[in-house]
Amino acid sequence: MAENPLYRGIIPPLATPLLTQNSLDMPGLERLIEHTLEGGVHAVLILGTTGEAPSLSRELRLEMIRASCHLVRERVPILVGVMDTSFMEAVNTGHAAAEAGASALLIAPPYYFTYSQRDLLSYVELLGAELTLPFLLYNIPQYTKIGYSVETVAQACRMQPVIGIKDSSGDMPYLRRVIVEVTNRPDFAVLIGPEEKLVEGLRAGASGGVCGGANVFPRTFTQIYEAAVRADWLEAERLQQLVCEASAALYQTGDSESSYLRGLKTALALEGICSDLPALPFNRFSAAEREAIERGLARVGSALNSDSVIT
What we know:
The chain is an alpha/beta fold. The protein has helices at about 25-40, 60-70, 85-100, 115-130, 140-145, 150-155, 170-180, 200-205, 220-230, 235-250, 260-270, 285-305, and strands at about 10, 20, 25, 45, 80, 105, 135-140, 160-165, 190, 210. It contains 12 helices and 10 strands. The strands form 2 sheets. Strands 1-10-9-8-7-6-5-4 form an 8-stranded parallel sheet. The protein has a two-stranded antiparallel ribbon with strand order 2-3. The radius of gyration is 18 Å and the shape is globular.
C-alpha cells in the first residue's frame, strides 16, 4: 500500500439526498454526513457518480457543495466531483468548491464527444492553470466513453496540481500499471472505486477506496482499510466477503442500469438516514422492489452483527 498520499483510506462517494428534483433533503444530508464520519471515514466525496452529479441542475450542485462543506466543518477533507462537458463550467465548479471550503476536486473526462489522449492531457493542463484547488483524475470509461490511459496518467503525475486518481474501471491490470507508473511520486493517491475489489486493490498498492457501500456501512469499510494497513489480509478478506454479500443484496434489484443507485438510496432510506428519491429519469423502487431491498438489508445486517462488525 502507498504510504504517503494526501488522500488515502476510505472516502465514501456520498449520495445526494433529494427532497424534490431541485432541492436537497437537508436533514438527510446532515444525517448521512454524521453517519459516515462516525464510521471513521478519512474524507468524503460529493457530486460523484453515486452523487448523481450529471443529473442535477447546476444550482443544486452548488447548493450541495456549500451545504456539505458547512456540515462537515473541516473535520475531514471534502472532495468535489467535476463532471462537465464544458471546460468553463468545470472551472466554475472548481472555483465554487474552493470558495465553499472544499479540499480538492475529482475531474472526470468531458463526455459526449470522442477525445484523444492528447486532448485529455491538454484538458488536464488547462484546468491546472485555471483552478486553485488540487485535483484527482476520475477514470470511469464506462460512463465517459474514454478514460485516462496509463501513459496520460504518468504524464499528468508530473503536474503539481494533479495529486491522484480514482479508478472506477474495474480493470485490475490497468490499476496495477498506474501504481507502477506513479511510484516516483509518493504523495500521489491511487484510489479504487469498485468495492467488490477493494482488498485486491489495496493488496496491489492502492492507497484507499472510494466505495459507494461506505454510505451505508462505513465502519465495515474502514475496518477493511485498517486491517490492510496492519497487513492482516485474512481479516481484510473476511470483511471483503461481507461487502460482496452486501453488494449482491442491495445492488441487484430492478433494472440493472439503475439498480446500484436506487438500491443504495433505498437502503439509506430504510436505515432512516435520508430520502430515497433518485434524480430523474430514474424513479423510486416499487413496493415489491423496496421489500426486496429491506430483506437484503436485514440479511446483511444479521451477518455483520454476527461477525461483531460495527457498521
